[in-house]
Amino acid sequence: MTSSPESLASAADPAAGAVELCRELVDDLSFGAVRRWKERHPGALAIGYMPIYVPRPLLDAIGCLPVALFGGGDQIEIIRGDSIFQSYICHIPRSVVELGLRGRLDALDGILFPSICDVVRNLSGVWKLLFPDRYSAYVDLPQNFDAALGGRFYLQEMRRIVRELGERGARPLDEDALRAAIIAENDRRAALARLDALRLAEPWRIPASEAYLVSRAGAVLPTAEHQALVEEYVAAAAERPVRVHDNVRVVVQGSFCEQPPLALILTLEKAGCYIVDDDFQLGLRTIEGAIEVAADEDPLAALARAFLERGAATASRYVDEGEKGAALIAKVRAAGADGVIFAAASFCDPALLDQPMMESALAAAGIPHTSFKFAENTGQFQTIREQAGAFSDSVKLWGTTV
Amino acid sequence: MSLQTVKNPHPPGPPLPKGEGGARRPPPAAKDASQERQKRMIAEHFQRLERAREEGRKVVYTFVPGNLTEIVGALGMLPVLPEINALQSGMRKKSAGYIAEAEKAGHSEDVCTYVKCDLGMLRSGNVGPTGTRLPEPDLLLLSYTGCFTFMKWFELLRQEYHCPVAMLHVPYQAEGKISPEMRQYVVDQLRDKVIPMMEGIAGRKLDLGELSRRLELSRRAEDDLVAVWESARHRPSPIDGYFGGVYYIGPIFSAFRGTEDAAAYYRELRQEVEARVARGEGPMTPDGPLAEERFRLVVEGPPNWTHFNDFWRMFSRESAVVVASTYTRVGGLYDTGFRHDGERPLESLAEYCLGCYTNLSLPARIDLLQRYVETYQADGFLINSVKSCNSFSAGQLIMLRELEKRTGVAGGFIESDLVDPRYFGKANIENRLQSFLQMLAARRERSYA
Structurally, how many domains does chain A consist of? Predict the structure, then answer.
């Protein structure tokens, strides 16, 4: 067994400041950063959105602050949320409701619920019943990826959101503003890609737990501010002293929309795993690569095209071509990973129904894997640490699981 | 989702077998002509499926909500409905083994048990309710209406069968209405994607005249089905709109919508129900005709299939009648006015898909339940929340409170599952139901006082 990575930086670490700031932003369930942004932008709207994906540049372009909601994690006691969702429903809707009912989301002028699963779909209705005077909307992302069919419908959906937010004070959609917002988003994504690339090459330098915090800090920041923060962290991490451990390289897969507690990611690292790739905050990876806009192209059409043509094979997207699991195998190989850890939220139908297909594909490809479930407020990690440690040891000893 | 091949709840002739609950059944009533007709229709359908390969007929696996049975039929193809296979496996006490089989293969205990039951059945030889192996699909017709799990289900089946999938993405009625954009999106997919793909599999062009003819047959059946639902306004109600209702939806939710057989079945059923009204009779139950109607209930959520008759008896033995249910609208919501329309074939099919019950927003579902409570003068409403079905279950607790607030009528809440017997706690469910009914009785006494 190995010692833990140099995660969650110490004071002597040049990346410590950035990590600490990110942690504060992630831990702040009162969304202070959003409140401060609204003070700086009187009259502008802050629009929350549930995982997995909404087109953030669209919100940016009409002067809104997109705010990614990931529930309450392990930091909020659920009381009223539990009175709305049965025990066999996943955890994130109850913590989102809890945040709303406690006034923690009051800084938001509206919430978007993208079409990802039945629970989030129904949560959109629960929200309308609980908060009838607040704006909320369901965003039906197409499962038909033909530009003339799903593409046209998606354009109509985006225009509807623009129109509805316009009625509440957002700016009208302007092509130049959208083009600029897409460029800014691409810059941010490029910064995140550099973060991922450094983690992939030197995971001892960028633990997944830190990468998680740095990327998730973007949930409450304007695009350019987040990009700057990511770049600051990457530059600092490149300079930090490191110690290389004899860890296995793993890909973590399956978090879908509910996020594992940070302590769980740290637990995997302490169990001897370098998490070289993952699908936490899946929305960041929904579109592969940059959103390309031709010079003479309507940027809204470009946004739609990116979703249709460059959408990643996730559990929320219908995959009608190729074999399920092919994308995961490609990811494992690209990452030079030794194996895969499936970590899905309990009662998450999409992730858990996807998992056997992924496991079959991995088995056929001879890639070791193991799995466990979590809830966003999971507080006991000993079993997971033992399981991940055994997985790590067996991969190191035999190159496979037993 | 609906019931296709089911045992008659009143099997003929003594000596009386013990029921699921161990109670002796009273002498059953004779089968109605409609029951006999449905039985024959189902038997013939499975015979057609048995002969499908030798006769060169193509087989389409598809789902109940948002099904396109008229198109399937007009192209000469035969539908198989995996949800119905699963519920029948539940009724035949085979689902536990099938689910165990799927869980052994790596499927989580957390996920939809219809899916696991179907996969377990497939791994166990895919033997259908008539005891013969079901033909493999030539096409998986993924009508993605009201349930995300359908998408995963057919991704899983595609891996098993390696056959084409035709996906129809049906937008969600989040605002409780169908926008022109939503309708057009579905029509465009049908015209440009789904139908051409089905034609390619069938090896022939879709005859629009034949499609229109079938849609007119659907409309006739729908008119009669609505009359059956609305008969529950009478006191006593001549029907049980939940337990009895799942028999009534059998043909129209499955392979028979748009057929002469279905039109004849619903005409016959309507006449039988009207005759019961004329005679002042209550509904049939597993133990014979209901003699007294003490409680009129509206039920939200699917039934449990593994203990279906036990579950039904919990109601009927307390003289509780379900006057309306939402489960019986999951494969088509007709009593708010929608009808298939041969003059607008694709448009009306799109509206059908968009209008299925679980494709409605939570507020719209509450509106419908409120309407049922008021229209059918229910004494109470009950939610059977099933662990397997997030589409139905997520949000039902707030539906309960909202409906109580709007109607002043008391709501009850029980939990079970579709086809996993591990989640049917008989004593617990019975206790809750009896407490609920006692509360309704106490309320009634107080109101009389």
Answer: 2
Residue A42 shares a structural domain with residue A146:
yes
CB atoms A353 and B152 under 8 Å: yes
User: Distance (Å, rounded) from C-alpha A169 to C-alpha A262?
Assistant: 36
Residue A51 lies in a domain: yes
Q: Counting Cβ atoms within 10 Å, is residue B401 exposed (0-12), middle (13-18) or buried (19+)?
A: middle
* Structural domain that includes position A388: 246-279+314-402
Q: For residue range B82-140, list pLDDT tens digits in order.
A: 999 999 999 999 999 999 999 999 999 999 999 999 999 999 999 988 888 999 999 99
* Global ipTM: 0.95
Does the pLDDT of residue A267 top 60, yes or no? yes
Q: What whole-number distance in Å separates Cα of residue B190 and Cα of residue B201?
A: 15
Contacts of A79 in chain B (CB under 8 A): none
A135 and A272 housed in the same domain:
no
Q: Does A98 fall in a domain?
A: yes
Interface membership of A193 toward B (CB under 8 Å): no
Distance from CA of B151 to the nearest CA of A (A): 7
Residues 342-361 of A with CB under 8 A from B: 344, 346-350, 352-357, 359-360
Interface test with chain B among A324, A349, A357, A359, by most B beta carbons within 10 Å: A349
Q: Which residue of A has its CA nearest to B365?
A: A125
Which of B141, B148, B386 best tests the A interface by mutation, with the highest count of A CBs <10 A?
B148
CATH code of the domain in which A154 resides: 3.40.50.11890
CA A142, chain centre distance (Å): 20
Same domain as A166, residue A251: no
Say if residue B15's pLDDT is above 90.
no
Q: Which residue from B165, B193, B396 is facing A149, i.e. has the nearest CB?
A: B193
For the domain that residue A377 is a member of, what is the CATH number?
3.40.50.11900
Find the residue in B nearest to A352 (Cα).
B108
- Give the start-to-end residue ranges of the domains of chain B: 33-448
pLDDT at B8 over 60: no
Neighboring chain B residues of A119 at a CB cutoff of 8 Å: 390, 394
pLDDT in tens, A306-357: 999 999 998 999 987 777 899 999 999 999 999 999 999 999 999 999 999 9
Q: Which residues are paired to A47 by β-bridges?
A: A66, A110
B384 → chain A, closest CA residue: A86
Which of A132, A154, A173 corresponds to the end of one domain?
A173
Q: Does the pLDDT of residue A184 top 60, yes or no?
A: yes
Q: Which residue carries 């003479």 as its tokens? A: A296
Within a domain: residue A219?
A: no
**How confident is the model at residue B30, as a pLDDT?**
67
- My answer on whether A161 and A252 are in the same domain is no
- Please check whether residue A308 lies inside any domain of the structure: no
Contact A125 B362 (CB under 8 A): yes
Residue A178 main-chain phi, psi, to 5 deg: -70, -40
Of the candidates B165, B181, B395, which has its C-beta nearest A125's C-beta?
B395
